[in-house]
Amino acid sequence: xxxxxxxGTVSVHLARFIVDALRRSGAGVDRFARFHxxxxxxxxxxxxxxxxxxxxxxxxxxxxxxxGTAVGALxxxxxxxxAFGLWDYLVTSGxxxxxxxxxxxxxxxxxxxxxxxxLLVEEDGHTFTVRHATGRWGPDVVAAIDWFALAMFLTRxxxxxxxPLVPLRVSVTHGAPRQYRRLAELFGxxxxxxxxxxxxxxxxxDDVRAPLPKAQPGLDRLLAQQARMTLAxxxxxxxxxxxxxxxxxxxxxxxxxxxxxxxxxxxxxxRTLQRRLRELGTTWREEVESVRQERTMELLRxxxxxxxxxxxxxxxxxxxxxxxxVRRWDGRAPRDIxxxxxxxxxAAGG
Length: 350
Prior knowledge:
Elements (H helix, E strand, L loop, with lengths): L8 E3 H13 L15 H4 L4 E4 H14 L5 H8 L7 H8 L3 H10 L11 E6 L3 E7 L5 H23 L7 E3 L8 H8 L4 E2 L5 E6 H5 L9 H14 L2 E2 L3 H14 L5 H7 L4 H10 L4 H19 L4 H7 L5 H12 L3 H8 L9
Helix pairs in contact: 1-3, 3-7, 4-7, 5-6, 5-7, 5-10, 11-14, 14-17
């Protein structure tokens, strides 16, 4: 079940969980203060939807400060039932695990971004497989989210059945991480296929068809109705243009400034992105120039990086182009801007 209200966003339950995980790691969360959809008033609103770019920024930080790409699986193992709100209870409400898992796949938008998270169920009479894929983000973030999704299905399946279920096999499109032993312990098996064609977790058919011990007749239908109502009442906090600006700023940091790359991060075609910008009275070129200006001035006022390096970071081929642009924006030379901000310019090129 998808909802246009949820596209480009994740549930506040998921955002709250990963922000709390980052805080528990000891990493500073101050840099996320400028993300207004990660503020305390938003994270306290159970109907809020946080922009996917904001959630991705937290995931990026987690892969750096925590256990690399395996952090996703390790975090899912720590999350109690209820941490992800309604989605968690959908897993335990059906008459069997098979029906419950099919229902949470259908209502995946309750917790995830339906524009970027793709789930598929496969059955052959002997096995039951859930496949997962996410958007075209940075490779470490994609790996962390893929591990998170597979571990979520396993931990929720174990909670629903009340048994330490062991999957028949697990497959991921990524290479083996350094934390392989911890992953094998979590999943209960060494049958983890790396660099596979797709990400998946496979259960025995007998395991998914056994009656769930805590199932209550009709509760699954009531929760499915609640899921539809929740999606209809979703409250995206960030405007689309804000999300676009955040993705574009990230593209500058990753040296990936191109229409195709940014459109892919926003789960749309380049043509659609250009059309959306025209509807807002702006163009791709104007937006790139605006973010380049913001990024350049920020680097000049807050860092002592050599101008040559700043020019490269914001996409200028040489110092002369940078100096001309800065004079056009501000009327001053880069050195004067730094002096006014109290930042000593490097000895050369300042």
